[in-house]
Amino acid sequence: MSPEISENSHTLRSNDDYSTVKMASLERLAESVVDELNKAQGESQMGLLPFRRTGNVSEQSVSNTTKSIGRRSSLKNRSVIFGLLAALFLFAVGCSKDGMSPFDPMGPVAAKQLDLFNVLMWVMVIVFVLVEGVLLYAIIRYRKRPGQAKPPQTHGNTSLEITLTIIPTILVLGLAIWSVFTLFDLQDPPEGSPEALHVNVTGHQWWFEFEYPDAGNGKKIITANELRIPVDRPITLSLESDDVIHSFWVPKLAGKLDMIPTHTNEMWFQADSDKINDDLPVTLYGQCAELCGLSHALMKFQVTVMDQADFDSWAAAYGPPPTISARAKAGQAVFAANCTLCHTIDGPDDPVLSASRLTGFLTGGDITPVPAPNLTDLRTRHTLAAGLVDLSETNLLSWLHDPSEIKANNYMSQRAVMYKTETGTSNLTNEEIDALIGYLLDLQ
Ligand code: HEC
Ligand SMILES: [Cu+2]
Q: 444 Cβ partners below 8 Å, 6+ apart?
């Protein structure tokens, strides 16, 4: 393959194309708003900060009616544009991509949480409509009419007050009890479920680590950014963080739960085959849901739901990349020389090494080891850099050349010695990078 880096060297995942398009159209709209404002400023000499210039403006509106009309219509334009912008924003927020809607639950936990949400919402909608309805009726029906005498003045109505206290109390208590019961109900997988698979999840700035203490037959697996789970089996998760507070969220499987340093939070979920319409494996999407630093928005992950048999063969194949091709062999040497300070590639990370990487990260410094994704099974993943781009030779080339082009602020660019160059791009030669790609991805 050509080691040239081209402008569009990382193509976005098809799913992300959508959000990219959304972002691009939002940006375009924002630009047109600014244009429009500038135009309005030209017309009415009212800057972006009209309040500062009120004196000025009222003088103008008295002395010059045309300008005042211009100003009014430009104000109207502005409101229309801001209204449109707000509507578009709500639309963009509302129509999340297929893989991430909590309104399309794929397992029992998300389904029960959705039920609770629906009960709370509809009860509140009914209360709102009733109360506002009575209010509006009273305002209109008993409004002041000309020549009307003062109505009789009353003070207090005990039975009405008691009724209006008891009804909300019953409602609020009922909803609270329902919520608490749902909480207890979702605490653990129900009795009689198949044996749970346990996963320890650790949040890092800005990627997710998944550890299976026993993925089957005593096999320990550590991987990153892609959680594989067998279908129809409860998955119990222990959530932690190595640095700041993150939040673990797979909308189709369960609500969010914080990942807190020095404290473990427990949750579980399950993907049900009868709620999944497509053939397995199916990919669901997850995202960090707690502002955790500059690249928080770039901290995503995937959950691949697979048949138990497929999961077992993935677990069995977990191991160092095969070094059959000459390219892969060369890459192995480059990897040993440049990458092992932070990355492990021959099985689960050694806990002592992990601890020293964490110490390196927390003590800071220009060139230090940092916790980094385990690359043992990179060749079986679909994405690179915490779900940001497709895993392909081109994207891997671009990542190794300059990771910050794909993901701003990432700690590989910031702390690896090979990026301490004038331009911030890798000091590895094109041949070395090509060999690394061979080592990480070559399957023959
Ligand atoms: C200073 C520590 C450090 C060094 C040295 C380093 N990396 Fe990284 N690497 C990281 C970190 C941290 C990340 C995660 C970045 C993120 O997603 O925010 C990462 C991410 C990656 C990823 C993406 C993994 C994934 O799951 O998406 C690949 C591939 C990778 N590094 C390869 C390499 C290779 C090959 C080398 C050696 C040439 C190397 N790294 C050297 C710290 C390092
Ligand atoms: Cu985060």
A: 324, 325
User: How far apart are the CA of 412 and the centre of ligand 2, in A?
Assistant: 16
Q: Return the H-helix or E-strand segment holding 301.
A: strand 300-306
pLDDT of residue 329: 92
Residue 258 CA to ligand 1 centre (angstroms): 25
Q: Catalogue all structural domains in the chain, each as residue range(s) with its CATH number.
A: 14-95 (no CATH), 97-138+188-313 (2.60.40.420), 326-441 (2.60.40.420)
Query: In whole angstroms, what is the distance from residue 77 CA to residue 197 CA?
Result: 57
pLDDT tens profile 201-238: 999 999 999 999 999 999 999 999 999 999 999 999 99
Q: Is the CB of 416 under 6 A from ligand 1?
A: yes
Ligand nearest to the CA of 293: 2
Burial 319-338 (b: 16+ CB within 10 A, else e): eebebeeebbebbbebbeeb
d(CA 317, CA 311): 10
Burial class of residue 178, CB neighbours in 10 A (0-12, 13-18, 19+): middle
Which tokens hold the place of 54? Answer: 């009120």
| Å from CA of 104 to ligand 2 middle | 24
| Nearest-atom index, ligand 1, CA of 370 | 2
Which of these, 204, 241, 203, lies nearest to 409 by C-alpha position?
Answer: 204
Average pLDDT over every residue of 156-175: 94
| 388 pLDDT above the threshold of 80 | yes
Q: One-letter amino acid identity for 7?
A: E
Please name every residue paired with 169 in a beta bridge, in sequence order, or none if there are none: none
Q: Is 415's C-beta closer than 6 angstroms to any atom of ligand 1? A: yes
22-31, 106-115, 340-349, 392-401: least confident range: 22-31
